């Protein structure tokens, strides 16, 4: 059921509900991308009501700023209100895992459980980014030269898509199917909002790795499931900082999966989430 949620400043946000049952609201990665959880909704629809949305400026939502963490958190709450949810399980993927964590810290009474998928912990990005870049370049293999050429030029819209697909191909464990999976992520193609990406990543440098964030995580009384793909090019040790800070945490690493584990190990992903949420209603 597709609909439009209105942010409190009037910006229109694309939203969707699939399935029946207890609510699970999903926060996509990026920033500057769009919802990639269609496969997740299909996997979980028999057990849960899955709510998806495009963050402001992204995908099918209105391409309007301002772009900030506070604004995006308020937009997430607008989606919650739009669907009439008093409490919800919250799933975040990649950068969306940061968003979901911050929302749970600010509004723990509205979050029944947190599912943190393929995130990078609570330290500064500088702590893990060099290891990530090395792994990315290795995973890109024969596509690395073309990816670098695109990265350092003014790109057309078609080149933006090519650049993104090449980069996303490194997010899958199986090289034989990596380009196929990455191409599927780009259909339909909505165009990356690089201004949104730059603004939110710059803000993250002031928010992440602070004693205040670590203390807030230590006080978070929300059951949390951390799901990692063992083959993610983002080093999994980066998530240790979050795991060690949270008081109520379960961590599962899925073999043969990388950054989008629901694509490469769908049944294990489905079982892990449904069992966790069943035990933490």
From TrEMBL:
The keyword Transport does not apply. Residues 23-129 form the AB hydrolase-1 domain. GO terms for molecular function: aminopeptidase activity. The keyword Cytoplasm does not apply. GO terms for cellular component: membrane. Pfam families: Abhydrolase_1. Keywords: Hydrolase. GO terms for biological process: proteolysis. Belongs to the peptidase S33 family. This is Proline iminopeptidase. It comes from Murinocardiopsis flavida.
């Amino acid at each position: 059921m597709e609909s439009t949620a209105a942010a409190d400043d009037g910006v229109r946000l694309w939203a969707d509900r699939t399935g029946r049952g207890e609510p699970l609201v999903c926060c996509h990665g990026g920033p500057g991308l769009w919802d990639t959880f269609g496969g997740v909704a299909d996997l979980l629809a028999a057990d849960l009501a899955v709510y998806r949305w495009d963050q402001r400026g992204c995908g099918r939502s209105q391409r309007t700023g301002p772009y900030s963490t506070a604004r995006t958190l308020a937009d997430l709450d607008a989606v919650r209100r739009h669907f009439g949810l008093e409490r919800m399980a919250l799933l975040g993927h990649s950068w969306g895992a940061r968003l979901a964590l911050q929302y749970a810290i600010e509004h723990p009474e509205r979050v029944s459980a947190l599912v943190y998928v393929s995130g990078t912990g609570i330290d500064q990005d500088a702590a893990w980014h060099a290891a990530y870049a090395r792994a990315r370049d290795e995973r890109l293999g024969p596509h690395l030269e073309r990816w670098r050429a695109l990265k350092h030029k003014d790109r057309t819209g078609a080149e933006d898509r090519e650049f993104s697909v090449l980069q996303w191909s490194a997010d899958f464990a199986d090289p034989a199917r990596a380009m196929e999976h990455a191409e599927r992520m780009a259909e339909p193609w909505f165009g990356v909002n690089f201004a949104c990406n730059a603004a939110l990543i710059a803000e993250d440098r002031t928010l992440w790795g602070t004693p205040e964030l670590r203390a807030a995580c230590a006080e978070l009384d929300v059951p949390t499931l951390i799901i990692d793909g063992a083959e993610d090019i983002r080093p999994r040790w980066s998530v240790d900082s979050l795991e060690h800070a949270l008081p109520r945490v379960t961590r599962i690493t899925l073999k043969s999966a990388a950054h989008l584990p629901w694509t490469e190990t769908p049944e294990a992903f489905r079982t892990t989430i449904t069992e966790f949420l069943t035990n933490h209603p």
